[in-house]
């Protein structure tokens, strides 16, 4: 896909005013539905964390965090990339019990992101995390949770369509989930890139959970990067939906059962990140002090794009764009917020 791609003949289902109204309703609907289905309580979340704690998400390990000093506190801080590790610490500090969890509005800056139709340097998502028992660290539990989230997506879409009849022109999200591993896709299409494999599979399986992201495949390369210190690479994945406007696979959520002390120990070594073992978060986890959890992030702007039939993420969020993107959208009559 080109950096900025506007489908020929594209016209938004909703005007600018109704788009803003629908975004507000959609967000309230989905977070209430998700919270009820997964037994999550809403909590407040930080925009930045102390750099020395190791709580910031390192993503693929190469992205630079936005950093600044706080003279009054005597610390350096980093704007979060995501709250993957912060949430687990919060569950520990707030003394949540097994079966209980939290969700929060996460706003982040990813300065090294390459903006296109789906990506922006500004990231907004529902970050959620839930305490689980040792017996729940299974593929079956992960898949059950995925089905619950997809059901929440479907219910939100159904309610939104009843309020905005213009959206009935868009296809419904498929409620049946196809589960496939990254290794199965590599075996099937060894000559395709990971993203091409996703497009090829999801075109025929419109709601897919792609499992096993982060570890090396038989080719010696991972399907995609994952930091070694939050997801267990054998118990994680992405929820991918077919986007009918852009005609491609569309990641709506990255999630997984989180690392245990044993899998963290193993993944830190594989990733060459043994220096993190002495950071406060990692030390507590390796010592077994933090609860076992499952969690993930669900893109707010991504979901708005999909359910409102938008072609560019800038139609549902305000950000900063390069001149090429601004020109391409202006020429196509696409209004960026």
From TrEMBL:
Gene3D superfamilies on file: Bira Bifunctional Protein, Domain 2 (3.30.930.10)
Keyword Electron transport in annotation: no
GO cellular component, as recorded: cytosol
Entry EC no(s): 6.3.1.1
Catalytic reaction equation(s): L-aspartate + NH4(+) + ATP = L-asparagine + AMP + diphosphate + H(+)
HAMAP family: AsnA
Official protein name in the record: Aspartate--ammonia ligase
Organism: Pseudoflavonifractor capillosus ATCC 29799
Gene from which the chain derives: asnA
């Amino acid at each position: 896909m080109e950096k900025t791609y506007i489908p020929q003949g594209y016209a938004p289902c909703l005007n600018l005013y109704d788009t803003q109204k629908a975004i507000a309703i959609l967000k309230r609907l989905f977070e209430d539905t998700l919270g009820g289905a997964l037994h999550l309580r809403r909590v407040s979340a930080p925009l930045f964390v102390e750099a020395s704690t190791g709580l910031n998400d390192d993503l693929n390990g190469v992205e630079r965090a936005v950093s600044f000093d706080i003279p009054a506190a005597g610390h350096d801080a980093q704007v979060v990339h995501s709250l993957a590790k912060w949430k687990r610490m919060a569950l520990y500090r707030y003394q949540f019990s097994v079966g209980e969890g939290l969700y929060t509005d996460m706003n982040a800056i990813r300065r090294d992101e390459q903006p296109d139709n789906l990506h922006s340097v500004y990231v907004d998502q529902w970050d959620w995390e839930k305490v689980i028992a040792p017996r729940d660290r299974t593929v079956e539990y992960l898949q059950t949770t995925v089905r619950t989230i997809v059901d929440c997506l479907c219910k939100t879409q159904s309610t939104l369509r009843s309020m905005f009849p213009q959206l009935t022109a868009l296809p419904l999200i498929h409620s049946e989930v196809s589960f496939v591993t990254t290794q199965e896709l590599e075996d099937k299409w060894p000559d395709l890139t990971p993203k091409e494999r996703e497009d090829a599979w999801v075109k025929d399986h419109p709601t897919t959970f792609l499992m096993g992201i982060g570890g090396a495949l038989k080719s010696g390369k991972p399907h995609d990067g994952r930091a070694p210190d939050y997801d267990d690479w054998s118990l994680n994945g992405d929820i991918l939906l077919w986007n009918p406007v852009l005609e491609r696979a569309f990641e709506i959520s990255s999630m997984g059962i989180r690392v245990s002390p044993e899998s963290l120990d193993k993944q830190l070594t594989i990733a060459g990140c043994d220096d993190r073992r002495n950071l406060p978060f990692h030390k507590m986890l390796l010592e077994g002090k933090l609860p076992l959890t499952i969690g993930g992030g669900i893109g707010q702007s991504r979901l708005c794009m999909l359910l409102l039939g938008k072609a560019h993420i800038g139609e549902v969020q305000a950000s900063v764009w390069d001149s090429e993107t601004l020109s391409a959208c202006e020429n196509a009559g696409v209004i960026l917020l």
